[in-house]
Each structure stands twice: as C-alpha cells, then as structure tokens.
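Handoff note, outgoing to incoming analyst
You'll be picking up this chain. Sequence as last confirmed:
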Amino acid sequence: MPAAHFRIRSFAFLLDFILLTAVSMVIIWKFLMPLYHPSAFYEFSQWMDALVTWFQTGGSAKGEPQPLMNQSLTEALRYAQDIQLIIFWIYFAVGEAFFGGSSLGKRICRLRSVSTVTLGAPSIMTGIVRGGLKTMAIFLIFPLSMIATICVVFFNKRRQMGHDLLSRTAVVDERYIHLEK
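Most recent structure output, in case you need it:
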C-alpha cells in the first residue's frame, strides 16, 4: 500500500481543521453559549476592549498588569474548548469508523486510513481510538504533542504519525493504489 506523502496529508488535515473550526464555532457561539453562558460574548468583548486599550496605551512598557479575564469568562471559554474537543473527536472517529477511513479533507485529497492488521477500513473501536489520539495531539500540550506525533513520521517506512502507530493504522494515497496493481 502506498503511504501518503506528508504534504498532501497535511493539506487534507488543514481542510478538516478549517471545516471543524468553523462548524464548532457556529455550534458553540450560536447555540451553546447563549444557552449555558449567556453573558460570555459580552464579557469577551469587554475583555478584548480592555486588552486593546492596554496595548495602545503601552501598558506592557509601563509595567502595568495585563487585563485578566473574569472567572465567568474563563469558565465559558473552558466549556467552549471542551465542546470543540468533543466535536473534533466525534468527526475524526466517525470518518474513520463509518466512512472507510476518510474524512472530508481526506476524500478531497484521495487519502484514506487503513488498518495495518487487516489492510481494510479501520474498525469502529480503531476509529474511536485514532480519532481520540489525533484530537488529543491537537488540543493537549500543543504544540509539543503535535511535534512529537509528526516527528514519528520520519522514522518509519509507512510514514505513520504517532496516532497511526498507536491505533495500528496507516494513511494511504488512493491515486497510487491503482498504479501498483
């Protein structure tokens, strides 16, 4: 099976990331925040105004402390980040498990994930694990976790990232599968 090149794989991920960020922001700011944290948008606007004023007046040069978010806004943003993490995980897991190892970005770039054990589409559990590991690399201890998972690519023949190795999958380029037969 021909391994996908890092550049095309990165482009597919970028497409997915843009899509997921846009969708999650709509879900969070249009539906969930007004319901669970109704004052979050106003508090965020106030904090941003204070931050801009602090920069414009040279607050850092004068030694003035940077404006801090209030407790309510901090909780709202943590909630938003948790929801975004869940949306990313579900998207990647569903794509892996139910759409033949492909997300929208992978489909556009003609890539897919395959199980290194069966050489078929990843199982449901493998999709959940791979989606979770990929999401954790994006959200937890960023950028160190992302750098670590990317560095693994350069030390194996299949060009597997950390989440691929741990979930026993590999990303293949469908354009070259037909040429090898």
